[in-house]
Amino acid sequence: MYSFEPTDEQKMLIDAVNRYALNDLRRKAHEADEGYGFPQEIIDKGWQLGVLQGSIPETYGGFGEHSALTGVLAAEEMSYGDLAGTLAVLTPALFALPILACGSEEQKKTYLPPIAEGGWQPYTAACIEPFFDFDLLEMRTIAEKKNGHYVLRGEKIYVPFANEARQFLVYANLEGRTQGFIVDPNTPGLIVGERQKTLGVNALPIYKVSLEDVIVPAERRLGGVNGCDLNPVFDLMRLAMAAMAVGVSRAAFEYSRDYAKEREVFGVKVAQKQAIAFMLAEMATEIEAIRLLTWEAAWMVDKKREEASKQAYLAHIGAVDMAMMVTDRAVQILGGHGYIREHPVELWMRNGRGFAMLTGLGII
User: Fold this and answer.
1) How far apart are CA 28 and CA 39, in angstroms?
2) CA dist., res. 311 & res. 62, Å (int)
3) Of 2.40.110.10, 2.30.39.10, 3.90.1030.10, 3.40.50.2300, which CATH number belongs to 124-220?
4) What is the assigned CATH class of domain 8-117?
5) What pLDDT is recorded for position 272?
6) What is the DSSP letter of 150?
């Protein structure tokens, strides 16, 4: 039986991340969204919280061990401040955690210490593809083994910090099986396109990346010559999105609830109107349900339970619908004010809409 009580270390992390989320990310979120980016000092401050470094063992330069549950708690709390800022701070995890989970010993010793021991650096991953039926398990980016190396061909979108990346982790289909490949940014054929503009997460710099006969040495296949099973990595991606959806939804719910309690219409508080009260109650219920489902899935991943992948998938698809419903209703509850950028609910609604397509942009 798992416990609903965080450990003392987890409580300390939650408190530290919450202060950063409110005092730094939330305070700068509107400005960052309008200006298409957070100041580097804000990202650096988030990195100094040590969320990723605490997931990496001392052997590889970190100061802890990986826990999906701790990652879920941190991701939820940070995205309570702002989703784009959270994704920016945690972008190096897109590269580091798959290597920690699936990499060969040589790959771990080569790539993890520079990330864990230094400041924030733009290590990233290219996962999402520009197709409506994109599937983590059926990539259209192709990897072909040829003359002792691999050749990658395909298109990727939503690649964070691709224009300045130190290294890429590229996901591709190798003989019907999704595999990861570590690609140097200066490799011929790897082409970074213009920055992409999207409905939400405007403060996160994301790019299209083309792979035109990119040659990757055999030793840079994630896991070594035999590759690895990436399902545990995909579980962590789904849990990250679920946790962040809970964080964004919590923010939208609490803001709209407090607004409804204070705002009067025809002499009556908005929150006292039955339709609004019912909406708020349903929003709170859905948030708590998905939150507990996400925590349970993370606990199962940590315990290596057989049903962990199923539970992570359920948490993710439930969180997608929940975030869309909660953030949309938050805008409705504010009425005309919800459509004005002076209030953050419109930003949360735009960001909430993205959870259906952003799997691969976060990992915990």
Assistant:
1) 9
2) 29
3) 2.40.110.10
4) mainly alpha
5) 83
6) E
Q: Are 354 and 87 in contact (CB under 8 A)?
A: no
Q: Which two tokens stand for residue 226?
A: 């035999």
Q: Tell me, what's the pLDDT at 3?
A: 72
Q: Do 124-220 and 231-356 fold alike per CATH?
A: no
d(CA 66, CA 125): 19
pLDDT at 269 (0 to 100): 83
Cβ partners under 8 Å of residue 51, min gap 6:
13, 17, 71, 74, 78, 89, 90, 93
Tokens of 184: 């140097």
Place of tokens 């700068």: 28
Token pair 């296949």 is found at 221
Contact (CB, 8 A) for 327 and 104: no
| Nearest-angstrom CA–CA distance, 263 and 14 | 31
pTM of the model: 0.96
How is the chain split into domains, by residue range? Answer: 8-117, 124-220, 231-356
10-residue averages of pLDDT along the chain (364 residues): 80 97 98 97 98 97 96 98 98 98 97 97 98 93 96 98 98 97 98 97 98 97 95 98 98 97 80 92 98 96 95 98 98 94 96 95 96
Q: CA dist 110 to 58, 96, 125, 135, 254, Å? A: 14, 11, 17, 30, 44
Residue 1 pLDDT: 45
8 A C-beta contact, residue 152 and residue 170:
yes
Report yes or no: 272 and 262 within 8 Å, Cβ to Cβ. Answer: no
For the domain spanning 231-356, the CATH number is 1.20.140.10
